[in-house]
TrEMBL record:
NCBIfam families: PRK10153.1. GO terms for biological process: phosphorelay signal transduction system; regulation of DNA-templated transcription. Residues 3-102 form the OmpR/PhoB-type domain. The lineage of its organism: Bacteria, Pseudomonadati, Pseudomonadota, Gammaproteobacteria, Vibrionales. It comes from Aliivibrio finisterrensis. This is Transcriptional regulator CadC.
Amino acid sequence: MVGICFQINDWTLVIEENKLYRQDREVSVEPRLVNLLQFLAQHSGEVFCRDELIKHVWDGAFVTDQVVTQSVFELRKILRDGRLDNTRYLVTVPKRGYKLVAETHQVRLEDTPYWKPCDGAKLPLENVVSSDGDSQDIHQHQETESQSVLPFPAAPLTRSVTAISDHVNSEKKKQGESFNSLHRWKLLAFDGFLILVLIAVIFSVTYQQTSTHITKAIDTDLIEFTFHTSRNDNNETESLADGISQKLMADLASIGDYRVQLNKTTFTTGILPGKAVNVRVEEQQNKTYLDVEYRSNTSNRVLFSRQYLMTNANLEHVLRQSSLDLMSALNVKITEAEMDRLMLGLPKEHGLLEMLIRANHFINQSDPAEFEQGIDLLEKISLAEPNNDYVLSELYIAYNAFSALNPELDLDDNTTKIEKLSQDLALRYSTLNEEVLPSRIYEALAMIAIKQDNKEVAAEYLTLAFKHRESAFSYILEGKLAELNGNLDKAGDAYSRAFFMDTSLETYMLSENLAFYSDLETVAYFMYRAVNPSEVRLLG
């Protein structure tokens, strides 16, 4: 494959350099993404599922579907390059896989329009052309070079240098004999001065190298929530643990002064959370237990650890009690009335609450199939409790989020469901409602107003949502509203707050595509650089 490249629409993929070129752009691409794009370019127009891509691109290595999904997402971002045109590259074929739909053909390296060899680089010998247009023979070329080299006149020059050196040494010997003691002391003093200067330089450099550089700092008001898989490798309990951790985090964000964030990806920042809450659901001897642990990262000590026996019949009680116990351990004061408000809207029938918790896990996944599984659970709950506005709001937001996370899919049926739910919720709250409602309802109503370009109503509903709690989704809506008002600085701040609370690719894509497209490279540069760290702009 030496010298072979691929022309993909207006991009040129140079495999040897791990780079993409396009007129005034040069982008460095990770090798795993280059391998994936090369394979798809070799089979342009063909559909490959995740398993096939793992087999051919990753050589059957142990790679999860999430790695493939994230790699496809990153390739789309790089190829799209922030443009607003309708040029398509990688598309998702529902229930089948991915395919490259861009115009693709194989080219030679020297024939590419934007690539140029570095200064001093030699082209292959078969491309060396003489003045009459014929290719030169490699042996003739080397022979000509060897004949053009002149011998170096070593012997005369060596004799001259030796004579000069002997003369200098002779003169130094004569001068040395005439040195007096005073002259020698001056030389010693000068040498001592040079030694002192050298010591001072070494001390200064050593001091600078050993000075303290703070790269991490602990924020004692920040709590990180993490769910853990079952020790018995039970995937069913994993979705419960994630949903419960999200519920505990939302409760704490509604009542306390602490700031919260989810631990979902490998993104890192210079700020470490001062406290960590770990949630795990275990099955032991045909019984299900919820384990909640609170650890201080400043002292590395476990300050709270409790286990709750959990069944469908007592699930609401366990959620309420574990939230109360955790707040007590964190010295957060909460009244019974405030706790009652946090439990508003939860399904009452046995089994439906567990379905809601599992749904919250699935609708936080980037994989479309898993996300649709969460939507299916929410639809089943809404059929069982059609007048539950909290569940309808969750479903409305889930529909919109799914469309934003999968902009390349044909979602006409999803659009119809969004419009119907939007009309139903708008009719139920035709006037601004000041009564106490779950924050999720206010967020759904604010989003409906944003999509209808009703900025004043959207601002009022967002104020009510923030009055009860802060959430990553509320900050995304605040960013969208700020963009509609022309305040890009405020929009960038809001998106960054959302990304800080939920540092994930899903938050990035929602900020970019929810309701309308946002150019995050311009609006929220911090987020853009966090997700696109390898991109290099050649021309300013």
